[in-house]
C-alpha cells in the first residue's frame, strides 16, 4: 500500500537555518496522526512544510505519488486543507461567506457558486454544528464557534488530507472534545486522513491511531500511542518526570504530570 | 441587495442632474436644452465625468489596499503616489514648465515613488505588509518635506499654483489626456473586479489565502501595479483629492458587506455620487469662487462616516 503523503529526508526551516533536520515519514490513507513534541521541536514547521506554506530546503514530499512542489497551488488545495491555530478575521464576512470560500480551489475566478457548492457548504457547516450561525458575522462569534466555522471552511474544500495546527488550544474542554469527536467521526466515516499538531499528549493518545514525537527537528519515536507514550520517551524529550497509566474508560495510555515542587 | 444598487443608481442620476443645474449660474430645469446654455452644461458635464472617473479610481484602489494590508485605514496614497505626484507637479510649477508638462511629471513622480516604496519594503521576493506601510509613510514624509521646501522658496504665483493643485480640482482641459486616464481607470477597475474572489481570500489572511490556492505574491504584485497606475493617472489630472479612497470603501463595507464581488461595484457608484456632490458644492458654496474639491471631500466625508459608524454600533 503506497502512502498518501510521503516525506523523504526532509530539511526545511526559516531563512537559511534548517529547523527540520532530516525527517522521513509516511502518512497512509485513513490515518489520524498526532504530532507532538516540546516547543521548538519543529512540529508547526513540519506541518507548514507538508502543506506548502514553507519551501523545502532539501529532500522531497510526495502527495499520491506527485511531488507537491511541482503541483499547481490550486490543484494542491483541492486535495489538502489546513486549519490554522488562531484565526482572527478583520472583516465582517458572514459565516456562510467564510465557509463558501472553502470552494475557491474548485472555482474559476469569475465563476459563481453552483447549487452543488452550496450543498457541500451546507453539509460542512452542519457537520461542525455551525449551520444555525450561517447569517451571523464572523467577528461576532466566540472563539469556539469561530474555530468550528474555520473547520467547516476546510471541510468544504472536500480534501483527502486535513492538516490542523493545535485546533483545540483556545477551546474549553467541552468544545475540545466536540471538535475532536467530529474529526474522529470524519476520519472513520469519510476516511479523511488527518495530521494534527497537538500540545495535549492525552488528547493525542485518545484520538490518534499514530503518534509522531518530534525532538530538535528529528523524529524521536513514531508509532501507535502505546508505543510512543512511554515514560522513558516522554522524559527523554520533555525533560520532566511523568507517570504513564491507562485511561480507565478507554484503556489508552494516559500521561500523568508529576510536579517538581510539592 | 439589488434594491440597494437601484437606490445608489437613482441617487447618482439625481446628483448628476443637480451638478449640471447648479453652479455660479443656476440653470432652471426647463431651460436645460436651450442652445445658449450648452457651453456651461458641457463644461459641467465634463467635470462630472472627471469626478466619476476619479472617484471610481481612487475608491477601488482604496479597496485593494485595504484588502491586501487587511487594514480598513489603508488608502490609495499609502504607497507614496500622492507625495510622488505632488513632488513632480511642484517641480514642474517651480521650473515654469507646468503648462504642458505638469501631468506628465506628476505621473512619473507617482510611479517612481511607488517603485521606491516597493523596493524598500521588499524582502527576498516577498512584500510583508508592515514593511510596505512603514516604507510608504517614510517616503511620503520625506517627499512632503521636499515639496514644502520647494513651495517655500518659490514665487507667489508658483505658490498659489502649487497649493491649488495639491488640494485637487476636477477642471481638466486636455481631452486626450482625460481619455487616456479614463481608459486606464476603467480597465484597471475591471481587472480588479476579476480578482474579487482572490481579494476575498487575501482579506481573511495571507496564509489562509495560500491554503485556498490563491497565489498571493503574484496577485499582490499585479494589484499593486494596477492600483498604482490608476492612482497615478487620477492624481496627474486632478491633483490630490483625499478621503475618497479611504472612506468610501469603508462606508460601503458597512452598507453592503466585505464581499468584493458586491463591494467593488457598489463602491464605484457611491464614489461617483460623492465626487459629483462634492464638486457641485465646491462650485456653489461661495460663487463665483471655487473651493478646492479636496477640502470639500474632507469636510463632508467625516460626519457621514461617523453617522454610519454610530448606526452600526447601535445595531450591534
Can you offer a commentary on this structure?
The complex is a heterodimer of chains A (262) and B (316). The radius of gyration of chain A is 19 Å and the shape is globular. Chain A has 262 residues and is of the alpha/beta class. In chain A, strands 6-7-8-3-9-10 form a six-stranded mixed sheet, sandwiched between helices. Chain A has a four-stranded antiparallel sheet with strand order 2-1-4-5. Chain A has a two-stranded antiparallel sheet with strand order 11-12. Chain A is built from nine helices and twelve strands. Chain A has helices at residues 43-50, 73-77, 95-100, 115-127, 143-156, 173-189, 201-207, 225-228, 231-238, and strands spanning 5-12, 20-27, 32-36, 58-63, 66-67, 80-83, 161-165, 193-197, 210-215, 218-223, 242-246, 253-257. In chain A, 31% of the residues lie in helices and 25% in strands. Chain A folds into two domains: 5-79 and 159-257, 3-Layer(aba) Sandwich (Rossmann fold); 91-158, no CATH class. Chain B is mainly alpha-helical and 316 residues long. Chain B has a single domain, classed as Orthogonal Bundle (ABC transporter involved in vitamin B12 uptake, BtuC), CATH 1.10.3470. Chain B has helices spanning 2-21, 38-68, 81-95, 98-121, 129-152, 156-167, 175-194, 196-203, 206-211, 216-238, 244-256, 260-284, 293-315. In chain B, helix 2 packs parallel to helix 7 and helix 3 packs parallel to helix 10 (216-238). The model of chain B has no long low-confidence stretch (mean pLDDT 87). Classes of the chains: A alpha/beta (262), B mainly alpha (316). Chains A and B meet through helix 2 of A and helix 8 and helix 9 of B.
Amino acid at each position: 500500500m503506497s502512502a498518501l503523503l510521503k516525506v523523504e529526508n526532509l530539511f526545511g526551516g526559516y531563512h537559511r537555518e534548517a529547523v527540520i533536520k532530516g525527517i522521513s515519514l509516511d502518512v497512509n490513507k485513513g490515518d489520524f496522526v498526532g504530532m507532538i513534541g516540546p516547543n521548538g521541536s519543529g512540529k508547526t514547521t513540519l506541518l507548514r512544510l507538508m502543506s506548502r506554506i514553507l519551501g523545502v530546503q532539501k529532500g522531497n514530499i510526495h502527495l499520491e505519488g506527485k511531488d507537491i512542489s511541482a503541483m499547481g497551488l490550486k490543484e494542491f488545495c483541492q486535495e489538502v486543507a489546513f486549519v490554522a491555530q488562531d484565526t482572527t478575521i478583520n472583516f465582517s464576512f458572514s459565516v456562510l461567506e467564510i465557509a463558501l470560500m472553502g470552494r475557491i480551489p474548485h472555482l474559476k475566478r469569475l465563476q459563481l457558486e453552483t447549487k452543488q457548492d452550496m450543498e457541500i457548504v451546507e453539509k460542512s457547516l452542519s457537520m461542525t454544528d455551525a449551520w444555525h450561525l450561517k447569517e451571523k458575522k464572523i467577528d461576532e462569534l466566540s472563539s469556539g464557534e469561530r474555530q468550528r466555522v474555520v473547520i467547516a471552511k476546510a471541510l468544504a474544500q472536500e480534501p483527502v488530507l486535513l492538516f490542523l495546527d493545535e485546533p483545540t488550544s483556545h477551546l474549553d474542554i467541552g468544545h475540545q472534545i466536540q471538535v475532536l469527536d467530529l474529526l474522529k467521526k470524519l476520519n472513520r466515516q469519510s476516511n479523511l486522513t488527518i495530521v494534527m499538531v497537538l500540545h495535549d499528549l492525552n488528547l493525542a493518545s485518545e484520538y490518534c491511531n499514530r503518534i509522531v514525537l518530534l525532538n530538535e527537528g528529528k523524529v524521536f519515536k513514531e508509532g501507535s500511542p502505546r508505543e510512543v507514550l512511554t515514560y522513558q520517551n516522554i522524559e527523554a524529550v520533555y525533560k520532566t518526570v511523568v507517570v504513564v497509566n491507562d485511561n480507565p474508560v478507554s484503556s489508552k495510555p494516559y500521561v500523568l504530570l508529576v510536579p517538581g515542587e510539592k | 441587495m439589488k434594491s440597494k444598487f437601484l437606490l445608489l443608481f437613482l441617487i447618482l442620476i439625481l446628483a448628476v442632474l443637480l451638478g449640471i443645474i447648479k453652479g455660479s449660474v443656476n440653470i432652471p430645469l426647463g431651460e436645460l436644452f436651450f442652445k445658449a446654455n450648452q457651453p456651461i452644461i458641457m463644461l459641467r458635464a465634463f467635470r462630472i465625468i472627471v469626478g466619476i472617473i476619479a472617484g471610481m479610481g481612487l475608491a477601488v484602489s482604496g479597496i485593494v489596499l485595504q484588502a491586501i494590508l487587511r487594514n480598513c485605514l489603508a488608502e490609495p496614497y499609502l504607497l507614496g503616489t500622492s507625495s510622488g505626484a505632488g513632488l513632480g507637479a511642484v517641480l514642474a510649477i517651480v521650473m515654469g514648465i507646468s503648462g504642458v508638462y505638469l501631468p506628465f511629471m506628476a505621473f512619473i513622480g507617482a510611479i517612481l515613488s511607488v517603485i521606491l516604496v516597493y523596493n524598500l519594503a521588499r524582502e527576498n521576493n516577498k512584500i510583508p505588509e508592515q514593511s510596505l506601510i512603514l516604507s510608504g509613510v517614510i517616503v511620503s514624509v520625506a517627499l512632503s518635506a521636499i515639496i514644502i521646501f520647494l513651495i517655500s522658496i518659490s514665487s507667489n504665483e508658483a505658490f498659489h499654483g502649487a497649493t491649488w493643485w495639491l488640494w485637487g480640482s476636477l477642471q481638466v482641459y486636455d481631452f486626450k489626456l482625460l481619455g487616456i486616464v479614463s481608459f486606464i481607470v476603467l480597465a484597471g477597475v475591471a481587472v480588479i473586479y476579476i480578482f474579487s474572489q482572490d481579494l476575498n481570500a487575501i482579506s481573511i489572511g495571507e496564509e489562509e489565502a495560500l491554503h485556498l490556492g490563491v497565489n498571493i505574491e503574484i496577485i499582490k504584485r499585479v494589484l499593486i501595479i494596477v492600483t498604482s497606475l490608476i492612482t497615478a493617472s487620477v492624481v496627474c489630472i486632478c491633483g490630490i483629492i483625499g478621503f475618497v479612497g479611504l472612506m468610501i470603501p469603508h462606508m460601503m463595507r458597512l452598507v453592503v458587506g466585505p464581499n468584493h464581488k458586491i463591494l467593488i461595484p457598489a463602491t464605484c457608484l457611491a464614489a461617483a455620487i460623492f465626487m459629483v456632490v462634492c464638486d457641485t458644492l465646491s462650485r456653489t458654496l461661495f460663487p463665483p469662487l471655487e473651493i478646492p474639491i479636496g477640502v470639500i471631500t474632507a469636510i463632508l466625508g467625516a460626519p457621514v462616516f461617523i453617522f454610519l459608524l454610530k448606526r452600526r454600533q447601535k445595531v450591534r
